Amino acid sequence: MERLRERLAVAARAISRLQEAVQLPNPSDLERDAIIQRFEFTFEAVWKAAQAYLFVAEGIDLASPKAVIRTCREIGLFKESETVLALKMADDRNLTVHTYNEPLAIAIYERILHYQVLLAKWQMDMEQRLVKLE
Fold it and tell me: Is the whole model's pTM more than 0.85, yes or no?
């Protein structure tokens, strides 16, 4: 349980830093790239918190972000539309890590505004469910 609490706290801090970054008006290319980097580590923190949540709260051991996302839908953490967005977010995270081109960076940056809302909701919903388990 302690490891899960730690993962959720790390996720909350990452989300806060991402939310701070997306508030920048008209970010420069450098700032946009930094926001994308914050998105990458925020996504990692939240899906790993979800992985720990599923293990502790549901007894489900999963190894990949997409499996975690699909299982979050199955247990009711995500609605169908949120699952679709989360799976797209996982794809975008993979693209940002493995490739770089300017049009793709711009497109992903624009989607990060929606992703950060979903990441925050995902983390908060896990926190609320954890409180009910204790």
Answer: yes
